[in-house]
């Protein structure tokens, strides 16, 4: 049974690497692809190495961006880590990020 994956941030470096890995996986079907600032562009213009997905148009990254997003059994979001209230107290010189519990 194939797993359907939606990738938010597909136009960035991490999104491109994730898509490259997912394309090689025999049990993954790629669903919605989003890229907020690049919405409306073809993925091939931004990620030319992803030939099988070159014609796919990026959607806006919103919770209701497409029917594919709500029906996906797996969702992958790339980009900056989520900000928590305690993260604003960190200094800008901090170069590491670790998720907080809770």
Write up what this structure looks like:
This protein is of the alpha/beta class. The chain has helices at 13-24, 43-46, 67-71, and strands at 3-8, 28-34, 74-77. It is globular, with a radius of gyration of 15 Å. The chain starts with a strand and ends in a 25-residue tail after the last strand. 24% of the residues are buried.
A few lines on this structure:
With 102 residues, the chain is α/β, with parallel strands linked by helices.
Per-chain topology:
Layout: E1 3-8, H1 13-24, E2 28-34, H2 43-46, H3 67-71, E3 74-77
Parallel strand pairs: 1-2, 1-3
Give the helices and strands as they follow along the chain: EHEHHE
Helix content: 10-25%
The fraction of residues in strands falls at 15-25%
Strand order of the largest sheet: 2-1-3
Radius of gyration from CA coordinates: 15 Å
Structural class computed from helices and strand pairing: alpha/beta
Mean pLDDT: 77
Helix count, DSSP H or I runs of 4 or more residues:
3
Tally the beta strands. 3
End-to-end distance, in Å?
33 Å
Give the assembly state of these chains: single chain
Major sheet size, sense and barrel closure: 3 strands, parallel
Taken from the alpha-carbon principal axes, the silhouette is globular
Unreliable parts: 87-95
Keywords summarizing the entry:
globular; 102 residues; alpha/beta
